[in-house]
Design goal:
elongated; single chain; 469 residues; 10% helix; 49% strand; Rossmann fold
Length: 469
Amino acid sequence: MILPLLLLMLVATSRGCVYEIRDVVFYPNGSQEVARDWVIVDFRNQYGYDLFDVEIGDIAKVPVVRKGEEVRIDPYKNLSPREFPLSITASVKTFQERSEIEYTVRNLGNGTEVEVRIPVFRDLISCGNCEISSGTVIFRKSLEKNETANFTLITSRQFSVPNGTVSFSYEDSLNLNFTANIPVSVEKSKSDSWIGIFKVTNTLDREIDLKMVAFVEFQDGSRNELFERYERLGAGESFTKSVEVQSNDVPIFLFKVQARVSDFCKLTMVPAYEMDGRHVVGQALLKGLGSSFTPSYPSGVWGGALPAQVTLTPPSTPETTATPPAEFGGFRPQVFIPPLKIPELLLSPYFTVFSLSFAGFFFVLVFPVRARRGIVAMREHENIARLFARRFRIYCPPSSPIGYGIVVEPDEELVSVLIESGIPREYAESVAVAAKVKKPLIVDREEVAKIALSIGIPVIMYGKPRRAL
């Protein structure tokens, strides 16, 4: 008799899946200031099967990614701010009727294309090693590691250069592991003794490392280990082993297999800058400078060759809004609106527990309809959450994901405390996710609703309230 089994196996692929975004301002004295550093997970399952227990380095863990599904966790995790391996320095030469501002761009990291854009300003006469197009000074250059490039702005003797932008990206790699199904079988036969035949087949297109342990169990409950093996199988290869067991009783053969394929996915590091309370991703802000102000920079020493009578500073107000960013490495820069704080009024149970029939009115009234507004739901609430999916982002916990939702890793300490209160883990994770993203929670269990309300989370009750398991 052949007992078909399925093995969840770790596999990986080299592809872009994580973006690290740094809110950075470059100053023309060669320094830079990073205000925030965070990562976004943007992973698409391009395999022909479902994936489980996805691990992306030490950045994220996602329990399930269905065939063809995309998982976007935005924002996911804040990092300690780090500077980019890039510097921009300006030096000024002043003549009788004009000034020459030479910008030096130095790349200390891996090769990247750098693009500097500065809006055309009143004092600009011409530029060298750059172009002027559609009202913008553009310098574009592919720089290898430790390579330097220059461009020059010719201006009036007195000048005020507005803020510009710098576009670039750097790439690195992260370990990516996840599980998928491959066939495992155990065949049992009887002659003079019982024979167990254990087989694993590598159906993937790459080699795998296997840890296999086989057992035999008898009707009296006793169990013996038959063998433990470590094997590496190439694509299409199989492992088969037969074991004889002497017994008057009918034995049960058990086969435990752990398999792993290690590979990498691409980490793309891009700059961003804040504008009107939003983040424009793909560009950094390059501070302007002027000939008649006192500079104020966060750190560093001026690296340019300036005459003693000339000092540089950003102008009091930018003359032109920065141009929209281009795409980098297949990642389209976007504007992210920070989550809004929940009004204190919503923390009262009198204003947060209501039936589904009033839910739509509540959201339109309290939350302006923007892409960043959202709710938290579990998989069993998928049909209800779908009502809000067009106008609200749907967040969900890792233990109970929704296909079109954004999986958010909850605070594990809070999850543990909630589990101790008597609710199952998926409910505890849902409450913890709602606390993390500061969004209302869809729930149909009275105990869960009370716990959420007790820590200030708005609740959308629907159906007849049930008690938690």
